[in-house]
Amino acid sequence: MESIDAIFLHIGNSFSRETYFLLTKIQGILWSIANTVIVFYFLKIADLIWIHNHLKLIRYRYYFLLVSAILSLFLLFTENGTIFFSLEAGIYGIQYTILLYTLILERKELMHYFREIVSGKK
Q1: C-alpha R_g of the chain
Q2: Helix, strand and coil percent figures for the chain, each rounded to 5
Q3: Which of the residues 23, 42, 66, 116 could staple to 122 if both were Cys, CB 3.0 to 4.6 A apart?
Q4: Cβ(94)–Cβ(35) below 8 Å
């Protein structure tokens, strides 16, 4: 148990402000990538349901998702925490707005499609 304490003390003693900011940048970029993938596949599911219902595909939401992915690249080049967290909030705001907008707008089609799958009518 003392070796674990020594490891944590070593990490704590050499943990600087620059290290913290670097790790925060890495974490923010990884979260942004994960959110982009989740939103992309959610939009793909919504597209499949639109195709099933013989409607045209959704496009504009993909463009907004692309904008958020491009903005995510700028997280690497932020100089201070205020800019980083403001940019990160904007990126996540775009991504979660796309999710909520799609969920609210497509709720009837989503529920109808999943109801068909569960009931075995598909």
Answers
A1: 21
A2: 85, 0, 15
A3: 116
A4: no
Instruction: Find out whether 76 and 29 touch, Cβ atoms under 8 Å.
Output: yes
Q: What does the block give as tokens for 64?
A: 């907004």
Rounded to 5 degrees, what are φ and ψ at 56?
-75, 155
d(CA 75, CA 69): 10
**What would the pLDDT profile of 95-119 be if each residue is shown by its tens digit?**
999 999 988 887 887 788 778 778 8
Question: pLDDT tens digits for 9-33?
Answer: 777 777 788 888 888 899 999 999 9
- Report helix angle 107-119 to 81-105, nearest 10: 60
Spatial separation of the C-alpha atoms in residues 101 and 93, rounded to whole Å: 12
CA distance 122 to 117: 6
Interatomic CA distance for residues 32 and 92, integer angstroms: 7
